[in-house]
Amino acid sequence: MEYDKKIIELALSLYKIDAVKFGEFMTKSGINTPVYFDLRVIVSYPEVMELITSLLYEFAIVDSKFEHVCGVPYTALPIATLLSVKVKKSMLMRRKEAKSYGTKKVIEGHYKVGEKCLIIEDVVTSGSSVMETVNDLRKEGLKAEEAIIILDREQGGRQNLEVNDVKMKALLTMSKLIEILVENNKINKATANDVKYYLQNVKAPNTVAKINRMALAFEKRAEMSKNAIAKQLFNIMAVKKTNLCISVDLTSSTQILELLEKVGNHVCLVKTHVDIIEDFSSDFITSLKELAKKYNFLILEDRKYADIGNTVALQYTGGLYNISNWADCVTCHSLPGEGILKALNIKSNCDKGVFLLAEMSCEGNLITPEYTNETVKMAEKYPDLITGFVCQHKDTFKDPGVIQLTPGVQLQSSKDDLGQVYNTPEKVVLENGGDVIVVGRGIVSAKNPESEAILYKDTLWKCYIKRISGKVE
């Protein structure tokens, strides 16, 4: 009851200080409105600031778990400051533009990747201003999943934010505010009816886009992953600062091990074709696993399963190679249908992964856009199993917790005699959205594989940093 009295007091206070205006106005979203909220004036009224701070704390913050608060520039900054002091929590500040000097930061303050930040905003129409702040925080690896609002105009902002995994809480809605003002004879019913009609018939344009995975850091995407191997791989890439996968297409186990001793420090993933190794043995697997632990990389067996579920289960867990015993993840086709994923899901014990082939890099392959779309839909039913997709385009899938594995990369564009098309690191990472990039002959056949691996690693990583910085030209 006391809380309801404070809400009424707030509504009447906002009207009294002319923070609520009636007439003909245009919002930031570009729509005409019969009511406008100018909450910038509240900084001149300490008692109103104190009331808002108290209400936000009681209504939305007291039970929330977070490490930081961040106000959306600029009106919400003083409220965020007061809340930070009240709850004794760190405050972060987002710049609308990065500094051109010094650290060139967009987010100011001390924080760690994975910490939660509560967003503070004054008014929400479409939610675009909130999402600008959310996106910048997420690029830094922070969790930004909750926004606390003074006033919800009820024109689609809440729904737009929910699409982007942001939960919104508001002290007041437009409807509630109008109701209070009518009951207290501050506006007449005709004005109230105009506003109600407006609310029913005018929605803000949906300018809030779904989060673009290409703009997110690997640390943040690790938090969004449902597959254990995807989480692990994202974190390895972030720690080692490499998104290079080497394809060890060699037929000698000794040659493979010698190569990995040279390049293991520079890769996040090693892709094998175990069935081409002429001297395969359990000793080779033991040595391979030891190198993976020593150099902190994962193992992908590029088996490309493409049979019925029962057969694939046997191929995966038994036979000469017993792949499930040593490979962190495998590749498979979606051609046989969902049964293949059911089988691998059962046998993976929730600690393995699958890269599903959605596209191929060889010229003249028969995969169609329809096939690719159905492959992605099939994968969505098995989020705990799917590490990612083998594909060539950034729009193949949207889930930021899933990895795009892209083969067919060389420092210079080319094509071999068997129709394999090679793209440059810049094209694959910046334009096509590749996360983990597969390089085979470009390193394996080099006179100095280690120096070549370093060159690829550095080039690919620079492209990734450029991508998440938003400086793609």
Automatic annotation (TrEMBL):
Pathway in which this enzyme or protein is active: Pyrimidine metabolism; UMP biosynthesis via de novo pathway; UMP from orotate: step 1/2; Pyrimidine metabolism; UMP biosynthesis via de novo pathway; UMP from orotate: step 2/2
SMART domains from the UniProt entry: OMPdecase
Residues of the Orotidine 5'-phosphate decarboxylase domain: 243-456
InterPro entries: Aldolase_TIM, OMPdecase, OMPdecase_AS, OMPdeCOase_dom, OPRT, Or_phspho_trans_dom, PRTase-like, PRTase_dom
Active site residues according to the UniProt entry: D302, K304, D307
Binding-site residues for substrate, renumbered to this chain: D249, K271, S361, Q420, G440, R441
Listed GO MF terms: orotate phosphoribosyltransferase activity; orotidine-5'-phosphate decarboxylase activity
Domain of life: Eukaryota
Pfam families from the UniProt entry: OMPdecase
The EC number(s) this enzyme carries: 2.4.2.10, 4.1.1.23
UniProt KW keywords: Decarboxylase, Glycosyltransferase, Lyase, Multifunctional enzyme, Pyrimidine biosynthesis, Transferase
Single Gene Ontology BP annotation: 'de novo' pyrimidine nucleobase biosynthetic process
Keyword Glycosyltransferase attributed: yes
Stated family: In the C-terminal section; belongs to the OMP decarboxylase family.
PANTHER family in the cross-refs: OROTATE PHOSPHORIBOSYLTRANSFERASE, URIDINE 5'-MONOPHOSPHATE SYNTHASE
Protein name: Uridine 5'-monophosphate synthase
Annotated source species: Pieris brassicae (White butterfly)
